[in-house]
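Z., the sequence and structure:
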Amino acid sequence: MKLEFDSIMLEFEMHRVLSAVHMACNTGEVVGLLGRNGSGKSCLMRIVFGSMAAQSKSVRIDGQYLTGDYMRKKRIAYLPQHDLLPDSITFATALNLFGVKAERIEKSFPELMGFLKYKPHQVSGGQRRIFEALLILFSDHPFCFLDEPFSGIMPVHAEQLSEIICAEKSRKGIIVSDHLHRQVRAIADRLYVLANGKTYSIQSEAQLVELGYLQEV
């Protein structure tokens, strides 16, 4: 399956945030999305997912237009930059809501199993982030967006999560954005940078320097 989105325009009071975006993600691959703070990465993910309005947008799977936000949310799972789960439910309830079996969590991060009776605010921010990322990755959606999945988690856990992302791409397409660009670049099969409201397909590190994402060493 192939997810494509383009013709996305987003403006706030005459300030154009997104203007010439084109991205594609196939099942079986991890696509990295990089960009400086404030470039519009989170806005782009939210628009494609359907939780944010835009002046224009086109989202397609295998050439079929997804015209309703409901349809996009049925095909795309989204880990937002901020907390995914409300503090009013337990992690066990969250598993049921996302249709994820506890055995999958136990196999990947057994240390999280002791938290199932707890609510999100009762564990550390890193533990919460890992659990929320696993809910998205283990859901049955064919595509998923991960916005800052490595935020606040220990390096050893970031490596574990990277391995899970690479394993899960065998059954879905995954778009990952994170300020830890080396972590993203290590797992990405293809890479884009969002700069000046536009997406650029990246083939070399020199392009990251040219676009102002990395400083020349």
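The first strand starts at residue 2 and ends at 12. The radius of gyration is 17 Å.

Let me know what you think.
H.
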